[in-house]
Amino acid sequence: MHNQDSDLAKRVIDGDKQVNMMEVAIDEACVRIIAKRQPTASDLRLVMAIIKTIAELERIGDVADKICRTALEKFSQQHQPLAGEPGIAGASYRADAA
């Protein structure tokens, strides 16, 4: 946001779609593993950790997507000075001089 890099923001938004698709694919693979192989003990804990981790990564991707969409909206808006900006600047100057 600081550099107003709209290309990077667009890449992050596009990347979120890929993250969503990967989350679904990994989740389905984990369900298949549980159903077909019936893992126990450490294997089951590993599969469950993967399911939880991928859900969190997908959520992080959603947050990044929202941040980038907001940034793109802000980048597209032109700076519009406040109506009383000269008055504010003058007041600031007078306060500094005092």
What would your notes on this structure say?
- The protein is mostly helical and 98 residues long.
- It has a single domain (6-97), classed as Phosphate transport system protein phou homolog 2, domain 2 (Methane Monooxygenase Hydroxylase, Chain G, domain 1, Up-down Bundle), CATH 1.20.58.220.
- Helix content is 83%, strand content 0%.
- It contains 3 helices and no strands.
- It has helices at residues 6-37, 41-76, 85-97.
- The longest helix has 36 residues, at 41-76.
- InterPro entries: PhoU, PhoU-like_sf, PhoU_dom.
- One of its GO terms (biological process) is phosphate ion transport.
- Belongs to the PhoU family.
Question: Could you tell me the mean pLDDT?
Answer: 87
Rg from alpha-carbon coordinates:
24 Å
Order of helices and strands: HHH
General form: elongated
Helix content: over 70%
The CATH architecture comes to Up-down Bundle
Report the β-strand fraction as a percent range: under 5%
Number of domains: 1
Span of the ends, CA to CA:
37 Å
Q: CATH homologous superfamily?
A: Phosphate transport system protein phou homolog 2, domain 2
- Using the coordinates shown, work out and report the CATH topology: Methane Monooxygenase Hydroxylase, Chain G, domain 1
What can be said about this structure in brief?
InterPro entries: PhoU (IPR028366), PhoU-like_sf (IPR038078), PhoU_dom (IPR026022). The longest helix has 36 residues.
